[in-house]
Amino acid sequence: MSMEHFPPLMFAGLILVMLIGFPVAFSLAALGLACGFFAVSQGWFPPEFMSALPQNVFGILSNDLLLAIPFFTLMGSLLEKCGLAEDMLDSMGQLFGPVRGGLGYSVIIVGFILGAITGTVAGQVIAMAMISLPVMMRYGYNMRYATGVLAASGTITQLVPPSLVLVVLADQLGRSVGDMYKGAWGPSILQVLIFALYTFVLSRVKPHHVPGVPKEARTLQGWALWAKCLRGIVPSAVLIFAVLGSMGGLPGINTAICTPTEAGAMGAVGAFVLAAMHRRLSWPLIKETMLNTMRITAMVVFILIGSRTFSLVFQGVEGGRWIEHMLSDLPGGQIGFLIVVNLFIFFLAFFLDFFEIAFIILPLLGPVADKMGIDLVWFGVMLCVNMQTSFMHPPFGFALFYLRGISDTLFKNGSIPKKVESNDIYLGSIPWVLMQLILVAIVIFFPQTVTAFLDKEKAVDLNQASELLQQMGGHDKPADMSSDDASKLFAPELPASSASAPTDDGDAVRRALEEAAKK
Fold this sequence. Notes:
By secondary structure, the chain is an all-alpha fold. The protein has 25 helices and no strands. 45% of the residues are buried.
């Protein structure tokens, strides 16, 4: 067997081990080691190549950016259990309830707000279903709409900053987390508007599917109702704006004063304060949130180790070049590449969750997208929109599993009058998956939905930069140095590990030019 035929076999083996059902992290590590020892026996690379694996893994795990994962997980897990969902859904349900589809609107809006606060799909779907499903059934909402809107509004947490998915994507693509957050705001807002538009159209076409709640059913009215809404929203909004603003993750904020890790630590402290404000802070709550944080962080680390083992060997047998040649030769150029990649990710999401896709597949696709001239921030946000569907479509849509489990619990304890059928849950998810795919198409064909929120690149006067170089270093620019070469001296590429630094790429140049202008 020649080495050029081995990468396709490794990739086929990757698909096979993922379909077996054994934990992906350990399957990947085993496959990578087996293929690595086989490659050594064939003489494709020396044994010393494999000895670099431990140091390679240690280098990845020592990346400070990954510390943001446990901080944001702790923040989300704590806020998920401190009563925010209950307060928001109750107040929003009463505010929008009399309108046809009002309970649907309240679930969509609260899902968006909680997505920016908690960042956990499981807790969000369960919390909203426990509160809203009995109310929707009581007032005659169509079962498929009710289950669909609850599941879809829970999964939007993957896209709304400060999403954990965006942190992982930024790390894998070597881009700033703040830029990734800025780029995600456009699709996040569009997703909410698409969901709300569907609810509005349904309320006009089939008003009996989404009836309004009688006014007499409201327990609060006037200022008391608005005050309750604001009590739930304002403290949460302050926390989110503080976290995102400090790391430059809000549109219009060009300067970051914190790294993502520091912002995550600040958010975790803020979560403790909010939990105390809701009088829910207790030792059992803290213990449960810490255990949940430990489980998620350990899962991420083991998947990262397994994927690194596989990708090291895959790159050693020139698998990256095979992937690049295969995807670069697709008809349609960039659009053809993006369509194929999105179809590939969509079908992988039937079997894998977003962590596995991000750590296994993205390192293979990112370099190809970069060489094709695709903006990696836009590329990452687009894939994040696509990966929302991993929670929604059968057979392994985890949001549907959560909904199935909580609906059975509600039926057994008498909170809902009849059992929710699996058929209603799965069929109810189809329109919402289609809306998520519509958003993917919008992001592909209208990149401005992402790039409009990013900072505009500032042009550098290369002649002035060359003169400044002579003043600072005392060296004349060689006669054969082109303008491109001069620009590279002032705008070097940042390594992936420093992609999350608070300053952007042009800060050093701008500061130097400003100092020269003052002189």
